[in-house]
Amino acid sequence: MQYTSESVETLVEQFAQLPSVGRKTARRLAAYVLKMPRENVEALADALIGVKDEVQRCSVCCNVADQDPCAICRSARRDHAVICVVEEPSDVQAIESTGEFRGAYHVLGGAISPLDGVGPDDLHIRELVRRVERAEDEDAPEDKDAPEDKDAPEDKDAPETAPEDSAAADERPSAPLADESPAEQEAVQEIILAVNPNVEGDTTAYYLSQLLEPLGVSVTRIARGLPIGGDLEYADEATLARALEGRGSV
Description:
This protein has helices spanning 6-16, 23-35, 38-54, 71-74, 89-96, 125-139, 166-171, 199-212, 237-245, and strands spanning 56-57, 64-65, 79-86, 103-107, 190-193, 218-221. The protein has nine helices and six strands; from the N terminus they run αααββαβαβααβαβα.
């Protein structure tokens, strides 16, 4: 069925391209937009365009952000020695909503899925390896045995430093805020794999563990088991098995 209005039908087609949105849902959304006040429709359109124009990917963690590096990678209040690896930016929001994790993140952009044609080179895995290697290089001790040239003559004829102009001093960039620091100053000690508990997630976790463990970092994976408020009789065998394997003391 098509609307008599070609503009409405075009809107329905666009809504139907969204994931998990069928034709019926797309028609309901289009009908709702028709009833919305014009200012609300304009605000929605501006928000959609703003997402494409202003949002970028953080060059450190590959998460979506308004600035590069993102606020988490710049924060001195985060533990950058611990990196939680997730599949999508929405996973970062889910973990942040718990308020329990204070480390850094790395967004892969998906999971390894050979059936879908997604391999390691299609994900942000190289960037993760570079983060670990770069942090180790920056944390390496300097060579203190290097000889110093103590006999080098001082240039006594060098002109004295001119007094600093107050106007020029005001133009200098201000120091970073107390809660900000350059990204990736600490050596990475632990990689937490927070990938989905499915075949693709298991494949990705295994690949990353084999890739990262030789670099000298601890690779762990979030626990899997029964959900809070769930009943044992409704849990599947795989979930029960994982829950028994990951049991802890009371």
